[in-house]
Design a protein that fits this description.
Cofactor: FMN
Bound molecules: protoporphyrin IX containing FE, flavin mononucleotide
GO molecular function, one term: oxidoreductase activity
Protein name: Cytochrome b5 heme-binding domain-containing protein
Pfam families: Cyt-b5, FMN_dh
Keywords: Oxidoreductase
Number of domains: 2
Shape: globular
Radius of gyration: 23 Å
Structural class: alpha/beta
CATH architecture of the largest domain: Alpha-Beta Barrel
Low-confidence stretches: 77-83, 85-91
């Protein structure tokens, strides 16, 4: 991540960097061919050109005319993980331009659009990527639209209470922050900012063991009485994961999830393409003596890699192993059919209906699909367990629909990661937006508390 001081050193025809919206760009190669003339750019060499640039150009000019290599990343002082340039850490406060952008954001989808402009292209690609053609990722979003409410009217509703209990602990809302690695691609402070925003708004954060912030750092910033839960992948060396879980419990994490839908990474082409293109751009000295038969770029792994996962678990051994470590509530994350939800019930754990944001198996069912199947085939699960869902949630109405269908809690991955491009303030605003939308939806369907949602019906077009 270049500092402003470093950018200032590149102020000549030979090496010309400029800053636009708090990010630096190497524009040396376009000076000579710039349609507005070289002087227009050179006047701002080494400096902030935001105002002059934006008065003439659309923001996508930069993506269209500069290679990923020329996007130098947000101006700051630290290098990010995976070689990707990061958000500035020093300034806790947003600059005036970012503040204005944040003011203009009024929905979760707005945050995605803003993040696509604000983040380095490779970081955005990592977050956004789904498996293969990304139709499962898209289906996750679309399937919420295939559910319609049957609202009740003329019910006196003076205020709406969105608070609920998720795995024994109370929260202000039924939605939560999903476990997700890669928060440091968005902001150098990463997950701790999610913890702060979750604490401030009294919602649940489910932290992952792939998080770039340690559990100690998370616990350090959490508020008194704030509950955070811990998610694991079981590593090939189970002892290591066991120690991790024990440590998390000692630190005060009060719920556990085991993710089971990712024994290997899905084929995330958007992410792989960004990695490959960056490597090609960096590889100026390619002498082309590689044997094309050896080119296996199609199997490029994701930007954030994780160690190999223990793939030998079956239901008995997995639950026995977990129960040998803890009595805390356990969720099994990545349940994708009613039969496995029924097994969760049998084993006394909670089914977390998720297809990992459509990043694993293309063609996997959405949480809505699985929830509907559970209602048809094994509705007892909804009484015996707390059913958790996630995938494609961007609206308060999605959350309320999930609850009417019988879910207890609804997770958001990208929906609360993209706002991190605006730091803790961004995440807090996203949570407030969702809160407002949930409250509005509840009033409009005719309920004033979460418990009353179970008395409602919805119509499914799936
Ligand atoms: C340092 C800030 C910059 C200033 C002040 C500036 C100014 C200008 C001006 C005055 C024009 C002519 C507009 C017209 O004919 O109506 C222009 C055109 C253009 N500039 Fe820049 N420019 C800047 C940076 C850049 C950068 C960094 C790029 C590419 C990455 C770029 C790409 C273009 C292109 C493609 C056009 C043609 C018109 C268009 O497609 O927008 N400019 N610029
Ligand atoms: C960038 C990213 C990283 C993720 N990392 C993890 C992870 O480490 N562990 C996990 O169980 N799920 C992970 N997930 C999946 C989320 O927990 C969640 O299931 C999913 O994001 C929900 O879908 P949504 O992003 O459409 O809201 C990740 C998702 C994304 C987008």
């Amino acid at each position: 991540m270049p500092s402003r001081e470093e950018v200032r050193k590149h102020a000549s025809l030979e090496s010309c960097w400029i800053i636009i919206r708090d990010a630096a760009y190497d524009v040396t190669s376009i000076i000579g061919s710039h349609p507005g003339g070289p002087k227009a750019i050179l006047r701002y060499a080494g400096n902030d050109a935001t105002k002059a640039f934006e008065s003439v150009h659309a923001l996508d000019t930069l993506t269209k005319h500069l290679s990923p290599k020329q996007h130098l990343g947000p101006v700051g002082n630290q290098e990010g993980i995976s070689g990707i340039k990061m958000q500035e850490t020093k300034s806790k406060r947003l600059g005036p331009a970012a503040k204005a952008e944040l003011r203009a954001i009024i929905s979760i989808r707005d945050f995605e659009v803003a993040a696509s402009r604000r983040l380095p292209p490779r970081a955005f690609a990592f977050l956004k990527a789904g498996a293969d053609d990304e139709f499962t990722a898209q289906w996750n979003r679309d399937s919420w639209k295939a559910i319609r409410f049957w609202p009740r009217v003329l019910r006196p509703i003076e205020s709406v209470d969105t608070s609920t209990v998720i795995l024994n602990n109370s929260f202000s809302a039924p939605f939560f922050i999903c476990p997700a690695g890669g928060a440091k691609l968005i902001h150098t402070e990463g997950e701790v900012l999610l913890t702060k925003a979750a604490g401030k708004n009294s919602i649940l954060q489910w932290v992952c063991n792939m998080s770039a912030c340690s559990p100690d750092e998370i616990v350090r910033v959490k508020r008194p009485g704030q509950h955070v839960y811990w998610q694991i992948y079981a590593a090939n060396d189970l002892e290591i994961t066991k120690k991790e879980v024990e440590k998390a419990i000692l630190l005060g994490f009060t719920g556990i999830a085991l993710t089971v839908d990712a024994i290997r990474a899905g084929k995330r082409e958007r992410d792989a393409r960004a990695i490959i293109l960056e490597a090609i751009a960096d590889d100026d000295a390619d002498d082309d003596d590689d044997d094309d038969d050896d080119d296996d770029s199609f199997s490029t792994g994701p930007t954030v890699q994780r160690p190999a996962t223990w793939a030998k678990f079956d239901w008995d051994s997995a639950i026995k192993w977990l129960r040998s470590i803890t009595d805390l509530p356990i969720a099994i994350k990545g349940i994708q059919c009613w039969e496995d939800a029924e097994l969760c019930m049998k084993y006394g754990v909670h089914p977390w209906l998720s297809n990992h944001a459509g990043r694993q198996l293309e063609g996997a069912p959405s949480a809505v699909d699985t929830l509907l199947e559970i209602r048809r085939r094994c509705p007892k699960v909804l009484e015996a367990c707390e059913v958790i869902v996630d995938g494609g949630v961007t609206r308060g109405t999605d959350i309320v629909k999930a609850l009417v269908l019988g879910a207890r809690a609804v997770g958001l991955g990208r929906g609360l990661l993209f706002p991190l491009a605006y730091g803790e303030q961004g995440v807090s605003k996203a949570i407030r937006i969702l809160h407002h939308e949930v409250e509005t939806a509840m009033a409009l369907v005719g309920v004033s508390s979460i418990e009353q949602l179970s008395s409602l019906q919805v119509r499914s077009y799936l």
